[in-house]
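Form 7-S
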Amino acid sequence: MKDKPQQTDTLVFFVNGNKVQDNDVDPEWTLLFYLRNKLRLCGTKLGCAEGGCGACTVMVSKFDRDSKKILHYAVNACLAPVCSMHGLAVTTVEGIGNTKTSLHPVQERIAKSHGSQCGFCTPGIVMSMYALLRSLPGKPSMDDLEIAFQGNLCRCTGYRPILEGFKTFTEEWEQVHRLSNQNNGACAMGENCCKNKANQNGVNGCSKVNGNDDSDDKLVDTSSFKPFDPSQEPIFPPELQISSAFDDQYLIIKGPRVTWFRPVSLEELLNLKSKFNQAKIINGNTEVGVEVKFKNLLYPVLISPIQINELTSIKVQSDGISVGAAVTLSDMESALKQQISTEPKFKTKIFQEIVSMLHWFAGKQIRNVGAVGGNIMTGSPISDLNPIFMAAGCTLELRSKDGGSRTVPMDNNFWTGYRRNIVKPDEILVAIRIPYTINGQHFKAYKQAKRRDDDIAIVNAAFNLILNESKIEQLVISYGGMAPTTILAQKTADKLKGREWNSDMLNDTYAMLLDEIPLDPGAPGGMITFRRSLTLSMFFKFFLDVCQSVNINVPDSHKSGKDGFHTLPLKSSQYYTKVPNSQEKHDMVGRPKIHLSAFKQASGEAVYLDDIPRQEGELYLSLVISTRPHAKIVSIDATEALKVPGVETFISSKDIPDERNICGPIVHDEEIFAKDKVVCQGQLIGAIVAKDQATAQRANKLVKITYEDLKPLIITIEDAIKEKSFLEERILKNGDSESAMKTADHILEGEVRLGGQEHFYFETHACLAIPKKEDNELEIYTNTQHPSELQHLIAHALGVSANKIISKVKRIGGGFGGKESRSAVTALPASIAAHMLGRPVRVMLDRDEDMMISGQRHPFLGRYKIGFTSAGKVVACELSIYNNAGCSLDLSNAVLERSMFSFDNAVKIPNITIKGYVCKTNLPSNTAFRGFGGPQGMFISDTMFRHIAETLNKDYTEIIELNMYKEGDCTHFNQKLIHCTLERCWSECLRDSNFHQRRTAVEKFNLENRWKKRGIAVVPTKFGISFTTTFLNQAGALLLIYQDGSVLISHGGTEMGQGLHTKMIQVASRALGIPADYIHISETSTDKVPNTSASAASASSDLNGMAILNACNEINERLKPIKEANPKGQWKDWIKAAYFARISLAVSGFYKTPHISYNPKTNSGDAFNYFTFGTACSEVEIDCLTGDHQVIRTDIVMDLGESLNPAIDIGQIEGAFVQGQGLFTIEDPIFSPEGMLYSRGPGAYKIPGFTDIPAEFNVSLLKGAPNPRAVYSSKAVGEPPLFLASSIFFAIREAIKSARTESGDTEWFKFDSPATSASIRMACTDHITKMVPTPKEGTYKPWNITV
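Output:
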């Protein structure tokens, strides 16, 4: 009889080489919680809590006793239960290097390559790369990097610099440099090196400076990189390698609500399942973890099967392969790849499709821990693997204590309903058997999602076919995403048996599938016609694939239709002007210097708000929010919540006088806590304050709110128009559009809309409010872009003067405008609670809370009427612009105003009337977002001009050039354009991108390919720099010099990753004539610089730089006599002498932008200080059958004057462009008809990932264009590049136009943004889309609506 395993309740694991033993563990804790709260290792970040962003990535290591190897793999700490770490070793970002001793090469290279901006995602990316290096026997390939980063996201950088930095670890890099060394240092690209092509952009990560190639001025100096020596990595804990004691232990850990079991035998597992029928079997916790966190579910018994041999084994059998249910997806993939490499190709077709599908299945971190059995038993109707398993005829081995073992097929009878199956409560899934294929068998699987990498499917399919000569002998058709379960189209398959595999069969199949697989017009997931068309498109792809494999004739132009997209090799170049050789070495202005916090961010040492240690007596606040869009509050009952041990209080409107329960950035039209009624879902009603986050959030769910719904319910822009629900209306007129319209040869009317966009900054809204012991003083730490505004709002809410409130910001993990005004949603409740209770209060929103509460980019609708000549010259335009503001004004009127100012973009429209409407709806208040209405206005304009070009059958570039602004022209708001470089940016971009030659190549490609189409488009931009509210264009700075010569600067701007502090130190370095390392900026605080404007409008460098320059000039004046008395002295000598001479070494600098004073009543005066110009050209390829797309190349030319820091500015261009790419393509917020936000995290809301960026990404800063209107001739950069990403959208439109033309549809077609896979596919009208009926509006209730 086998010895009974040792039982233990003590968790033992290693963290960064240190042994952790803990017998006081709660099974509900994740590894992330444990690291951050018990071990205080805060480098690992919480970004989403659902394994979708990678910010929490750590490396887990274990000793595999079968292979005798140490295995290293990346894991999402936000999902991994800490109990699952028993006997394992965890390495966090702190464990591989730091700035105090030595950085690891991974940390150093991402920093030196400018791959860290806000830095919140950086530790996770570092650890994904580190885990990759540790997991491979040799150097990684670029393919390995692609896979490693599938589970990591970044919102700031645009990914390019990260990939370029980490490429230096790869075999491809080594090969290039070995060849370079053989060529005596010459570039391995030979004559194709970018430096040999003065008029063309370089490739493969080359950067070129206009001047000498000094290593100090290189964008990235790879020669300075520390070598990577794998032999120097920390060793695996010998205790875990020598002994299997921890592996053999039966672990039982009991918590207050949940018990964790880790049995070590199948018998023990079956006993547990017999005793606890409802127990959850936990592998990677990738499903249960999300349910517990976001659905408030509780599973009292959790069982880990990772030590059960029968569930973790992979067995090769005569007819296939048996995979244990607890085998991870990564291990299954490795085993299948081994089979593919050793068995004949015809035997492993199913294996090949599983491996191919796993590439698109979640991220690497999820695949490393998620198990195949979990994927089956979860029963998601959009599972990537279940359609394959069903089509393949896989069988499942089930076992129970009393019922023994049985084998069941995965067929239509397996599922009994949504996420339900025939497995009995006491049964467990032991293994799945995946069969070999036979000669002549055809097997393919397909998937379409919003984003290729790490995304859930919209529809997926698998097809299994055996042909007898050309007749169908056997056919299995499986779909996911078309019903509550994965389904088999059995009726269609049965009818097709014996049919010839030909076009007649194909056409009949379409009709059969549409008949067999109906989809209710209101079905969850929406996109009904798209999903139905995908079922046909995927079968058509399979048809094309089979035809080509058995040599059935297919037109050459159709052949590429069977293929999907795969990641293209990364190429890039960056051009900028080198500083002159005469510039002093200590003068940092114009040099590509690394972000000053980059090394700290890469090592996890940078402190973000929630990294601040807990204060004595600290409490945690959880916001209670509305679940109705428009309703009267009948009652609020917190009785049950207040009974929860550890709950301190519940605060609501009753705790604040009515006159103080109001807030808002422009007008106070919002209640801090809703009193009598709610006007949107997500509105604050109250807050629970408790001893910790878990207690507060648990009690939050017990607050009972009774509502009485109110009418009307206004959700969409169209609703607001119908109800005349406008917060503000504006009109801007120039010339006489009505009269001019009568002179036009042609008049067009049209409309277009641009959807909203979630900010998705990685650090969610957070606040720590610390009350002082006297005088009602309060110190607040927030991650706001506007600390002064918060200071005043909090003072008002508390009924104290502003001088009692100190508002501080150290750094922000991304902002993009979303933290300009909406930080009040956390700061005000936390401050009120801290003030009431006299104790520190902390709050940090979960990702879903943040997305539901804090608002987004404004959706816009534009309706235009434009008159023009037959040559394409515009003579008049009348436009109505609507934005969806949500339930309050916030900054929506300023956003609308900016869109009206920006509508002209790059073209002169002589007679114009713009009417603007701020629509009040029952949505959370929308707010500032990078571009601030500018991109929306420009998008309407660019759509309009393309409409003109198509109407006249002319080239769009010809129309733009005919109407483009020139030096000295006046805008429609009567501002004269001075130093206008639009034409230069335009012409250089056309030249550098080889636009005309490539467009010819695109046309040739489209003639040769029916189901793949390419498009190429070029887009200019003109972006005004300044706050359009005049008084905001001011800034202050405090400059303090200490006796040792060190300088401390405080200014009004906040650092959110844009490199503001770095640039400000560069400015001060030049102004004071001292090295940058003499200067320090600690934080932004209202007790140092008062009355600051928000870090917004791209104006922070301009305003704060000039304020700092003013302070430096004042100090220089004071030091002038000292320097004259000792001209050969050094800085430190002068400062010491000044101190002894009693000269003040503290200066307050100030700046206000001159000559801006726009008067909207007269439409006169300059609205902006100057304009930033640029142009982008992008080429794309689309899959007409699925709507998928790939960006092949982008070229950008940007006028940034004389850049203060080319590295930071190029990073801002690329980051803004990729954020704009998301806006115009895949980012699509999803709302219910009642205004509920469905897309509340990275699982449902997709931002661009590593492989979505342009495969070739070239950025050039315009040479010789100094700007006399800003600090040291520079220009603002944060927002202007974002609109250039519309070049991708319009290139997609061009590709669609080619597809439609081939189908005989040549008319102008309405195409709204974003260009999602659904909108692309349905715009590519063809025989398939025309078969799918469109549900008639008004006959059903849709699952989601466009707001």
